[in-house]
Write a structure and sequence with these properties.
The structure is a single chain. This protein is an all-alpha fold and 113 residues long. The chain is 86% helix and 0% strand. Helix 1 runs antiparallel to helix 2 and helix 3 runs antiparallel to helix 4. The two termini are 30 Å apart. 4% of the residues are buried.
């Protein structure tokens, strides 16, 4: 997310190709994160309220991410760069909140299991 935010600051014309690569890389990273998290949660915290909350929030986050990607196809981005940048930063803030929650609520329980 930090690399992508840095690209946003440079402007579309300077980073168009790199930005598209970063979008794909981030999508793969988010998918891998979900798979790993689901696996560890199922192992360490099966059928717990925390596991259910994690799953529900991740599904909501993935729906938000998918909606963002659908709303911002590459062809739309150059003409609405500033609005796109704001949308990306808003989504990144939501993801950072999720990661902070995982650090606070999930990881201590996984470590203890």
């Amino acid at each position: 997310m930090q690399r992508f935010a840095a690209l946003l600051a440079q402007g579309h014309d300077a980073v168009a190709a790199e930005m598209l690569r970063e979008r794909v890389l981030f999508s793969h990273l988010l998918h891998r994160h979900r798979v790993d998290e689901d696996s560890e949660t199922a192992r360490a915290l099966p059928d717990t309220p925390l596991a259910a909350a994690l799953t529900a929030d991740m599904q909501a986050l993935l729906a938000e991410y998918s909606a963002h990607v659908r709303a911002w196809p590459p062809a739309r981005i150059p003409a609405e760069w500033d609005t796109y940048a704001q949308a990306v930063l808003k989504l990144q803030q939501r993801m950072r909140m999720r990661l902070a929650w995982e650090e606070r609520e999930l990881f201590p329980r996984l470590s203890a299991a």
